[in-house]
Amino acid sequence: MEKTKQTVPSVVPRHVAIIMDGNNRWAKKRFMPGVAGHKAGVDAVRAVIEVCAEAKVEVLTLFAFSSENWQRPAEEVSALMDLFFKALRREAKRLNDNNISLRIIGDRSRFHPELQTAMREAEAITAGANRFVLQIAANYGGQWDIAQAAQRLAREVQAGHLRPDDITPELLQTCLVTGDLPLPDLCIRTGGEHRISNFLLWQLAYTELYFSDLFWPDFKHDAMRKALADFASRQRRFGKTSEQIEAGARV
Q1: Which residue positions form the known binding site for substrate?
Q2: Where are the catalytic residues (predicted)?
């Protein structure tokens, strides 16, 4: 664990979302099996958590396994599930000791019942933590998230609790799996790809995007601090002009 604390940027995102890409390519470059890259990526997760907690980020959401990742080779999927299960068992107490609350978002129905139990137990162990929220997106897809929110609202309309005209973007947003948390301010993708791959599609509407050429296992403390510093240097306009933002800041 890196002990030296660095200067925290003056403007810090409340919510950081990360697409952890490049594990397989990291392993392939070293003539290792793909799962070795995923195992190495665990150290990057720890490093990023440390930097975000140090900077007083409130929420960190990590895209661990997408709904499309089931299409990968069965051997790799099996190894990923085993790694996820062991990480939940191993890390839950450590997260709680550091006052970090764990939440897992996504459709759990496809996971093995034993893994589903491990998810619930890990969340229960950390339920009282309030320093920082770590969200793991597993079997998650942005289109699935919007669809399940629409289904919830449709059931409310069917039951007579809502009228179709009552459904607003704000109401739909509360039905997303992240509906009780601030929207992401910063989304990072490692591995050199420039796309969001069905991750938090609704939530990323005005999120600042940051792309790194580093493979995920190499994205450690300094890389995360660099991303936070880049965010702090940006002007977020949300549809307004620069002049409007600057005038508002002077009031």
Answers
A1: 22-26, 38, 66-68, 70, 72, 189, 195-197
A2: 21, 69
Burial of 62 per CB tally in 10 Å (0-12, 13-18, 19+): buried
pTM here is 0.90
Q: Which tokens belong to 187?
A: 């989304």
Say how far apart CA 149 and CA 154 lie, in whole Å. Answer: 9
Is residue 69 annotated as part of the catalytic site, yes or no? Answer: yes
Q: Which residues are annotated as a binding site?
A: 21-26, 38, 66-68, 70, 72, 189, 195-197, 208
* Residue list, annotated binding site for Mg(2+): 21, 208
3-state DSSP call for residue 79? helix
Report yes or no: 174 and 3 within 8 Å, Cβ to Cβ.
no
Question: What residue ranges do the domains of the chain occupy?
Answer: 15-141+184-232
Rounded CA-CA distance 188/10 in Å is 19
* pLDDT above 80 for 143: yes
Asked about 43 being catalytic, the answer comes back as: no
> Yes or no: is domain 15-141+184-232 CATH 3.40.1180.10?
yes
pLDDT tens digits along 153-189: 999 999 999 999 999 999 999 999 999 999 999 999 9
Q: What is the pLDDT of residues 30-56, one digit of tens each?
A: 999 988 999 999 999 999 999 999 999
Q: What is the pLDDT of residue 235?
A: 82
3-state secondary structure of 135: strand
Q: How confident is the model at residue 190 (pLDDT cuts 50, 70, 90)?
A: very high
Tokens found for residue 57: 């980020």
The structure tokens listed for 58 are 């409130």
Q: Which of 69, 107, 198, 230 is catalytic?
A: 69
Looking at 98-183, list the stretches that DSSP marks H as alpha helix, in order from N- to C-terminal side: 113-125, 142-158, 169-174
